[in-house]
Amino acid sequence: MDSTTHGIKMKSIILICFSLLIYPFCSLSQATFTADTWSISFEKNGRISSLYDRLNERELLEKKQDAPFVRLKIGGIIHSPDKLSYQPASGTIDLWYDEDSINVKIEVKKKNTHFSFEVIDVRPIDKVDILIWGPFPSKIGEIVGEIIGVVRDDKFAFGIQALNVGTIGGYPLSEDGYDGSRGRAAERTEWGSVLQAYSINRNKLRTVDVWDGQFPDMPVPPMETSTVIGSKIALFGCEEKNILKTIGEIELAESLPHPMIDGIWAKVSPERGRSYLIADYSENDIDELLEYTKRANLMTLYHMEPFESWGHYEVSRKFFPSGMVGLRKCVEKAKALGIRLGAHTLTNFIQTHDPYITPVPDKRLAATGSSYLNEEISETLRTIPVASPEYFTNEKANWLHTVMIDEELIRYKSVTATPPWKLLECERGAFGTRISRHVKNSAVKKLLDHPYGVFFPNIDMQREIAGNMADFFSESGVSQMDFDGHEGCAGSGEGDYGIELFAKNFYDKVNHTVINGTSNSKHFYWHINTYCNWGEPWYEGFRESMQEYRIKNQELFERNYLPNMLGWYLLKTTTTLSDIEWMLARGAGYNAGFALATNLEALRENPQTGVILDAIREWESARRSGSFSEEQKKRMKNPKTEYHLEKVDGGEWNLFPFHKSEEFSWRTINESVATWEFINPDKEQPLQFILRVLGDSGIVKNPKFTIDKLTSFVFPTELKANESLLCEGYPETRVYDRKGLQIKTVQCSRNIPDIKSGTHRIEFSCEYSGDVPSSVIVQFKTIGTPERIEK
Questions:
Q1: Buried b vs exposed e over 492-502: b needs ≥16 C-beta within 10 Å?
Q2: pLDDT of residue 542
Q3: Which fold has domain 276-350+458-527?
Q4: DSSP SS3 for 399
Q5: Domains of the chain: which residue ranges?
Q6: How far is Cα 248 from Cα 636, in angstroms, rounded to an integer?
Q7: Average pLDDT over residues 503-529
């Protein structure tokens, strides 16, 4: 070979290698796809051989882990590919399984922000039960967004996106594809993380366990148009700071949901994470409730029971005698004030008085299974003979005990223990259905139900119900809702697909942006979802109810690019400003919104309603304007700290910290009078404290304080074990039970004295009855010098 020929060949090799980087294929592996920021390579055996971060010049693939690109579940066994080939001309990858007896063809497309991979053919399709993308093992494990499907460190992010509703972000843990976790599109491992997604071949008759086995062996009919063909994902890599921007561009490029709020993408809108008021408005009181909402500058006035029934979602005549016309007028009044109206429901739950149930039940109601009549039954027979007891004897999940025969619903009390099998003590014509004669061999369907006393639709009927809900919002103009009970959509037997599909069907049909939350986070639904506001106020006191759970949620929201939300809090006639400000400080610390659940009676009768609403307005204004410093927010995340905020001239605020003393104790077994030394580090002010009785039994009576041997005062009350007495500087004090719920107020024997700055001697005594020793714990509180907060 002469030097000229050698030089030409070397130049050709260089040009080929350069072109292979541009055209996504490289000879070093079976196939390499290269973007500006990252690349992915495949071996001939169908494994991923590299996930390369080009920005930081590092390998992200955890090579100690097996990394099949696509796996198949066939007859209960998961198969990895045997070989892979890439055809540059068509831009397709072929994968072969089970000694070449199964072929999967995948189309690859390079977009500005990502590569898309779509299954365009599977042969033979009937053999495949589930198609699994990955899991793709990555060394990155610092921050794992399990819902959004992104793993990241401070330099780089690697992500997966399911590109249609039939592709589920996560891993198939069950045959129906339901996952009760918060998310699994990305999952932390001991060596880093994995990204994963899958699709189920639904064009098969399947038998699944629904809701984690509550309804076992439920038959699910085939869906002819839903196979694993069409399963599609995006893979992307980018700088950590560009994650949201990249996903937004993927949404637009792949026609994913991309909801806008006032012309701004919902994921970056200033409206995301705003707080709202929950109170049942009506045509008669809408103006008053809007005034309360406006005074607090809350985003939405939200109704808990706006429907006649769930299923058809007709407007409640109780609240809106004029029907939809009356509701639309309420929406118009709210809109004029810059306020949204919201409406709450439980997604696909169907109430027993809905037209889907009575007088003629819909044949598309979800059934956990069925048997058939052994003989004809008359209209009067209350013992129903069935061929098999299966499905009817399930007491783990059987609240309404209801079967459907033709167009009659029948409730039964029990099932015979031995053959011949019969449903016993039956209520014929249940829920207003017509009692009828039924011929032998008629199907006896066991309806799927719930503790709330509702039924559920199959997947076809569910699409219709999502449309009904969308019609209500489109016609009324109501613009906020929650997919509460979203997990109910798994009742169709279609698992997470059913959950994702309901939201997508609603989103596609509604004619305006509806801000929405959920009870059940999902990967594809993330694109539709506006917020998750988990945390309920019903179980304990204002500060105690699910508080640890609420705080734990904040990290979940942050790693999944969801707005921080604290959950629901309850405003009652007895709720205090100090309670509200305690919650608002947590909101400021986490930059989190909340929902305040109340009613018109509580708003009218709580003597502090005005100052509470004003406090909400000012705290939320300071929070949403970013006025609190990082150091202040760090302090306010601590639930033991308390603050008071006051507006001052110039659009600024004073933030007053409260200082708490050590906990002083008085014990029944060895003390008559306890003497404590209390130091007030702040200016002169009325004494404030909380007194708690600890123990298993016993009663503390008439607690008495003496300040500096001069001023004595008594609280004429009895406190049982684990109750508490709260004094906030006023003669009227509050008594709380062991759960933190206010049970009464007590008037002190005199005005609460002022305590000067400095050291004070405090003597404490009380009467006590009971055989078991108890103790009294007292902690004092003072308000400190304010910090100026500038907008």
A1: bbbbbbbbbbb
A2: 94
A3: TIM Barrel (3.20.20)
A4: coil
A5: 44-256, 276-350+458-527, 367-447, 547-641, 660-788
A6: 32
A7: 98
Q: What is the mean pLDDT of residues 473-497?
A: 97
pLDDT for res 670: 61
Spatial neighbors of 59 by CB under 8 A, at least 6 apart, are: 50, 51, 52, 53, 139
pLDDT at 773 over 80: no
pTM tops 0.90, yes or no: yes
Q: What is the pLDDT of residues 222-232, one digit of tens each?
A: 998 899 999 99
Contact 446, 478 (CB under 8 A): no
Side-chain half-sphere exposure of 574, counting CA atoms within 13 A:
14
In the chain, the amino acid numbered 765 is: S
DSSP annotation of 714 reads: E
SS3 content of the chain, % helix, strand, coil (to 5): 20, 35, 45
The residues near 739 (Cβ < 8 Å, ≥ 6 apart) are 539, 540, 541, 544
Backbone φ and ψ for 149, nearest 5 degrees, come out as 80, 40
Cis omega (within 30 of 0) for bond into 124: yes
Residue 24 has pLDDT above 80, yes or no: no
Q: What is the pLDDT of residue 651?
A: 87
DSSP 3-state of 222: coil
Q: Cβ neighbours of residue 508 under 8 Å, at least 6 residues apart?
A: 470
Joined together, the tokens standing for residue 290 give 């809007």
- Dist CA 682 CA 696 (whole Å): 36
Q: Could you say which DSSP state residue 268 is in?
A: G
The sign one gets for the Cα dihedral 145, 147, 150, 151 is: positive
Note the pLDDT tens digit of each residue in 673-720: 999 999 999 999 999 999 999 988 889 999 999 999 999 999 999 999
Paired strand residues for 678: 760
Structure tokens at 351: 């109430």
What share of the chain in percent tops pLDDT 90? 93
Helix (H) / strand (E) containing 203: none
Q: What is the CATH number of domain 660-788?
A: 2.60.120
The residue that leads in pLDDT, 9 or 137, is 137
* Residue 17 clears pLDDT 80, i.e. is over it: no
Cβ–Cβ under 8 Å, residues 223 and 165:
no
Q: Please enumerate in sequence order all residues whose Cβ is within 8 A of that of 5, keeping only pairs 6 or more positions apart, or say none.
A: none
